[in-house]
Structure formats: structure tokens, C-alpha cells
Amino acid sequence: MEIRRFFVSRCDIADGAVTIRGDEFLHMTKVLRYKVGYKAVVCANDGVEHTCTVKEIGRDYARLTIDCSKVVDKKGVSITLYAGLLKNNKLDFVIQKAVELGVDRIIPFTSANCAETKFSVDRANKIALEAAKQCGSAYLSRVDELISIDEMAAQLKNYDSVLFAYEGERKLKLSDALREGKHIALIVGPEGGFQPDEAENIINAGASSVTLGRRILRAETASIIFCALVLNGLGELD
Fold it and tell me: Are strands 78-84 and 13-14 parallel, antiparallel or unpaired?
């Protein structure tokens, strides 16, 4: 049987054992039909994989013993992607690929040119969970609730560096703007881009506007290219 991957909180690991609860427990027992003796890989968002054996299945929990543990990934930087809300569920694709690349947090936002208004954070986090499992990540990315562009601008002071992919920027290249820091935010707009006053507010809030090149990219393409270029430039894709 294929050994499946599950995510828990760090507090669920203690004394050489892991307790799985909630949706992951239901997925393990109701969907995958796990039984005592089955093997699993458990991660707690710290870059460590725990290979485990199921020892007990209760009414609302499963207890596993840890057979061995190993560090498989170590992040030197935390990346947050602020992504403009996209129509036709295109944000699903952005979330999936951002997780595969190693983005830690995705925060969708609305702006004047957003054509979409509906967003389910629960659905988005399920997509992130499945993407993390599919790509074998030891980290679980988080998707936040939808916020406004003004709320986003107010949050930018919390980062060491903020890079803003702006269609109106013609001079500053990403490679020239990339700076070291532990917490970096990336901003990509919706299909219609940004209004001039929105871009000005973002820059005044501390973001560096950069160009992603001479070609006009779709919003979902820009998000993935932006994340990949930044992570590669920081050595996080090595």
C-alpha cells in the first residue's frame, strides 16, 4: 500500500508518538481506510518527516508511533504572496502552484479591477493541503481570508521586503530589487491590473515596484513566475 502523507500541529507530536485528529483523521480512516499497522508519513510544518506506524484508532483520533524522523527541507526565508482575486477559479491554480514552489502563505485581496467577489477560504486551504501532499512537501502553506487592497497595504510594514509586480513599472528589474530578509511579501494584481492610485498607495506603504519583463503576462502566470524567480534568486529552489 502507498504510504500517505498527513499534516498535524507540532503539539500533536510528543514522546515518540503522533496523534491525528480532525479532517486528517477523517481522511485517514474514512477515505483511505487506514487500519492498525499501516504506515504513514507525518509532517508538522517544520521540515521534518516522521515515518510512523498506526497503533491505535479511536472514535475521533488515531495514534501512531514514530519509527524514524529526518529533516528533508529547511527554509531560510518565509514568502507571503498577496494575490488579486481572479475570476473563474483561476486563483485555485495560483494556490496550487504557489504551494508546490514553497510559498508559505497566500493572502487574496480585492481591488478596483477585480471581476470576482466570491472566495471560500476553507476550499482554498483544502487545495493547499492537497497540493502539499501531492508534491511531497514537509511544509503546509496557509491561505488567509480575503482582504481589501487597503488592508493589504496596512500589512506591508510587517515584512523585511515587499516586491510589487506592477504593469506600470518599466525600469526596476526584479533581480535588482531582490534583497535579503527573513519575511518577504510579493504582490500580484487581478486580471485588470491596478489603478494608478492603488499602485501609488502600495508603493507609499513600502513596496518596491518591479517589472517582470517586456511581455504582458496573465495574472495567474505572473503570480507563478514571480514566486519562482524570487525563490530561485534567494536559493530556496536549490
Answer: unpaired
Q: What confidence score (pLDDT) does residue 178 get?
A: 84
**pLDDT computed for residue 216 by the predictor:** 83
Q: Which residues contact 107 (CB under 8 A, 6 or more apart)?
A: 80, 81, 82, 83, 143, 144, 147, 152, 155
Per residue in 219-234, pLDDT (tens digit) is 999 999 999 999 999 9
* Widest CA span in the chain: 60
pLDDT digits (tens, 9 = 90+) for 128-145: 999 999 999 999 999 999
Pairing of strands 105-110, 78-84: parallel
Q: Which H or E element spans position 124?
A: helix 121-134
Pairing outcome for strands 147-148 and 161-165:
unpaired
DSSP conformational letter for 196:
H
Q: What is the rounded CA–CA span in Å between residue 117 and residue 123? A: 15
End-to-end CA distance of the chain: 31
